[in-house]
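hey team, just a heads up i'm posting the complex here instead of the shared drive bc the drive is being weird again. everything in one block, sequence lines first with there labels, then the predicted structure for the whole assembly after. its two chains so it's a bit long, scroll down
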Amino acid sequence: MILDGIGDEEKWLAEGIAGIQHHAFYMHRALDANNLRDALKYSALMLSELRTSRLSPHKYYDLYMRAFDELRKLEMFFKDESRHGVSIVDLYELVQHAGNILPRLYLLCTVGSVYIKSKEAPAKDVLKDLVEMCRAIQHPMRGLFLRSYLSQVSRDKLPDIGSEYEGDADTVMDAVDFVLQNFTEMNKLWVRMLYQGPGRVREKHEKERSELRDLVGKNLHVLSQIEGVELELYKDTVLPRVLEQVINCKDELAQYYLMDCIIQVFPDEYHLQTLETLLAAFPQLQPTVDIKTVLSQLMERLSNYAASSTDVLPEFLQVEAFSKLSSAIGRVIESQIDMPIVGSISLYVSLLTFTLRVHPDRLDYVDQVLGACVKKLSGTTKLEDNRAIKQVVALLSAPLEKYDDIVTALTLSNYPRVMDHLDNGTNKVMAVVIIQSIMKNNSCISTADKVEVLFELIKGLIKDLDCTSADELDEEDFGEEQNSVARLIHMLYNDDPEEMLKILCTVKKHIMSGGPKRLPFTVPPLILSALKLVRRLQGQDGEVVGEEMPATPKKIFQILNQTIEALSSVPSPELALRLYLECAEAANDCDLEPVAYEFFTQAFVLYEEEVADSKAQVTAIHLIIGTLQRMNVFGVENRDTLTHKATGYSAKLLKKPDQCRAVYACSHLFWVDDQDGVKDGERVLLCLKRALRIANAAQQMASVTRGSSGPVTLFVEILNKYLYFFEKGNPQITSAAIQGLVELIKTEMQSDSTNVSPAPDAFFSSTLRYIQFQKQKGGVMGEKYAPIKV
Amino acid sequence: MNYLIGAFKPSCNISITFSDAKTRKQVPLKKESGQAVLVPLFQSQENISGKISIEPIQGKKIEHNGVKVELLGQIEMYFDRGNFYDFTSLVRELDVPGELYEKKTYPFEFSTVEMPYETYNGVNVRLRYVLKVTVSRGYAGSIVEYQDFVVRNYSPPPSINNSIKMEVGIEDCLHIEFEYNKSKYHLKDVIIGKIYFLLVRIKIKNMDLEIRRRESTGSGPSTHVETETLAKFELMDGAPVRGESIPIRLFLSPYELTPTHRNINNKFSVKYYLNLVLVDEEDRRYFKQQEITIYRLQETS
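-- predicted structure starts here --
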C-alpha cells in the first residue's frame, strides 16, 4: 500500500507538472499578445495546480518551483504597464477577482511586489496587506509555500535602512514587523502539521515537517539580513517577539529548530548582549526539546567568539556571561524534570568548555560548574547510563586538557566529588586519564596535600572500591593500570625533604590499602622514591636537628621496613627480598649498621621462609651475595654471621651447578677490592676449592646419569675466578694452582671428546688466550703470569 | 403574388430617435432572442423626447385612424408570458386620423417622467420600459413599433449603514464570528470583513462566500421563489484552528448584480444574500446566510 502511495504520488506530480505546463503555454501566448485578461485567467488556472493535497512536501516543492518560474515571467509582464495598459492599483484589484483563494493570493503577491516597486503606495501598506491576506491559507503546506513565496518576492523590497523603499512612512520597523508576522504565521502553520493525520502516519508527518523547516527558518535569516536590525532593535523587538512565538508554539521540533536558528543566524555579539533574554527562554521550552544541544551550540559559538579576538573579552565580563549561562542551565535542569541525567551533564560539559575557553583564569568558575554537577548527581546513586558516564568523563577530562598542570585540577574541591558518582570501571578510566595527563605534561606534584587529593581522585586504582571480585578484571589491564600508578609515584617530588617525607607517608597510607594484588606494583616505586630521598639526605645529614619530625634516614628506614613487611606478607617474597637488599644498601651508605643488619636479617628470613622455588633461590642468593659484598658498615661479627649464612645457603642449593656458581660467588664476600676492604685470601681459596669439588661432583653425577660427563663450563668459570683473585694479589692463589686447573680442564675436555659443545670450548680457549696475553704484556702482571704454561 | 408579399410586409417604416441620442449613454440590454443590443439609458424624472418618423413604402399611402406614442413601464411574468402588466402608461397623440403619403416626422416629449422602478431581467420576471408607436388602422390592423430603453435609478449612500456582525455555531463543534463591514453595498463596492474562529472541532476543508440572488414573484400562495448563486468566492483553504481570523475582501464589480428590489408593484422582489459556507472534509456544508442590500451609487465619472 505504501509502495502504491509512492507510485501514485509520482503520477500526481507528473499530472501537476503537465497541468502547469499546459496552462503556462496559454499564459505565454497571452503574454506575447499583451492580453491581460487571458494572462490572468491562465495564470490562475496554472496556479490552481498548487491546490493539490496529494503530494508530499518534497514533491510539492518541485511543483512550486515550476510555478515560481512562470510567475517570474508574469511579474515582468505586470511591471510593464505599456503592455497591459492597466494601472498597478487597478491591477492589484483585478487579480483579487480570482475565485479560488490560492491562485488569487499568489497573483496578489506577484502584483504586490510590482506595486511596491512602483512606489505608488508605501511599501509597508502593501506588505501589511499581503501578509494579512495570506491568512486565508490555513492548509499548512500550501500556506507555508505561499508565505515562502511572499517572503521570497518581498525580500529585496523591504523598507530597510539604506534601501530605496525606506521613506518617511516606511521604516525598518515596518520591515521587521512584516517579516516577524510572516514568520509567526508560518511557524503556526508548520507546528500545526503535527496535529494532522492519525498516529500511524505521525512519523511520516514528522519527516515531512522537518523537510519544511527551512521555509520557516528562512524568515529568521531574512531578519538577520536586514541592515537596520541593530542591537537595540534586536534586543527590544526582534528577539522578544521571535522567542515569544517559539515558546508559545509548544512544539518540540519547532522549538529545537528555531532556537538553533536564532543562535546560528544572528551575530554572536547580539547573543552576548541579549544573553539574559535568550537564556530565559530555555526553561520555558517543552521538556522534550533537546535543549542541551542548542545550549551547547550557543556556548560553543560564544566561546569561538571569545577566542576570535581578545577585544571582546571585556564584553563577556561586562554581561557576566558565565553566571548567566550557569544560572540558565540550572533553571533548565530544574524545570525539565524528565530530562535524562545525560542531558544535564552534557550541559555542564558545554558550560565547562565555555568557561575554560573564555575564562581560563577563573578556576572558581570551573569549580562552580563541577559543584553544580555534583549537586545534580547527588540525587542519584552511581550512574548507570553509559552516555551519562561518557559525559562525566568528558566533564572531568576537560580541565585536565585545558590546564597542562594537573595541580590546577587538584585545587578544584568538587572534582573528586564528581568522580564519586562514576562507577568503578569508569572511575578507573578517569584515574588513568588523570595519570596520563600528569605524565604527558611531566608535572610534578609537590605537596602532601595535593598528593592526598590526587590519591583521593585515583582511589579507583588504589584500592578495591567495593566487593566486585577482582577475578573479572583483565590481568593485562590491571597491570597497565597499576604500572601507571607506579609511574605516578615517581612524579611526586619536593626538594624539601620534610615535605617529601610527608608526601611519602601519604602515598604509603594510600597504597597500603591497595590489597595483595596491587602492592607488588605500587610498593617498589614508593621504596625507590624513598631511597632516593635517603640518598639526598645522606649528603646533608646532621643538619636537621630540633625539628618536630626530622626527616632522617633512620626514620625513613623505619617506614620502609613496615612497608616491605606488608609486601612480604602479600606474598611477594622475591620482590620484598630485593627491596630489603636495596634498603640495606642504602642503609649501608648511610652508615647505619643496625638498620642494614636488620634489613639483611629480614632478607634472610624471607629467603628461608618464603623463597621455595629453586630458581628463585638461585637468583635470590646471588642478589644477597652481590649486595653483601658491597656492604662496608658491618663489624666483623655481623659480617661473619651474614657471610656465613650466605655461604651456607649457597652450598645448599638444589642443583649442583647452581651450588657451584653460588659458592664461587661467595668467594667475593671475602675479598673486597677496596682500600680497606676485607681481604681474607684463605677463605677465598676455601670457597673456590669447595666450588671445584662441587663441580667435580656435578661432573660425576652427569656421567652417571647421562653416560657422559657434562661440559666443563663450571671448571672454566672457576678458572676465571682463580685468575681474578690471582691478579688481585690473593697470596693463596698460586700460579701452580692455576696451572693445575688448566691441566685438569684440558684432560676433561680430551676425555670428553664425544661431546664437544662449542660454547665451553670457546670460553676456555678465550680464557687461555687471556692468560697468553697477560704473559706477553710483560711488566708486573707478565711476570706474575710467567710461570703458567698453557 | 406581389400583392400577397406586400400584404405581409409592413407598409411603412417607423423610426424612433431620441433627441439626445448622440450624447446619451447606452447600455446593453438582453433581448428575448438572447442577443444584447445597446439601448439608451434613462433615470426617473428625466425628460424623454425625440422624433418619430413614419415613412410609407414607396408609392403607397397609409390610411390611419390616428398616430400615438406611448411610454410604457411593464412587468412580465414568465409563467404568464406575453401578458404585460403596465404600471406606467403615458400617451401622446401625434396625429389625427388621415392619410400619409410621404415620410412624416413627429416630435414628442414626455417630461419629468416618473419611472420608479429599474429595468430588470430576471429568471421569472422582467421589468421593461418601452416606447410604443401605434399607427391605428381600422381593418388592416394597426402598425406598431417598439423602442426599448433602460432605466436605472441612483441612490445616495445610505445614511445608516451598520456592519453585519454575528456569532454562529454548532454547539461543541464549530463557533465562528463573522463580520461584514456594511449591510448595504453599492454595485461596485467591496465587501471587507473577517471570520473569527472561536471553536473548531471539525476538519474544515475550505470556506466560500457566495452571493445569492433571491427572486420572488407573485404574491400570496402563488409566490414563486428562485434563488441563484451569482458568485462563489473562496475565502479560505485548509483547516483553521481556534483563534484564527480570516480576512474577507470581495470585489463586487465582476459580478452582474442589480440593486435590491423590494416588492416592486406587488409583483416581485429581488433580494441579495451573502452566504458563508464552510465545507468539511466529508463534504458536509455548514452555512449562514445574511441579507445585504445592494444599491446603485451615482457614478461620479
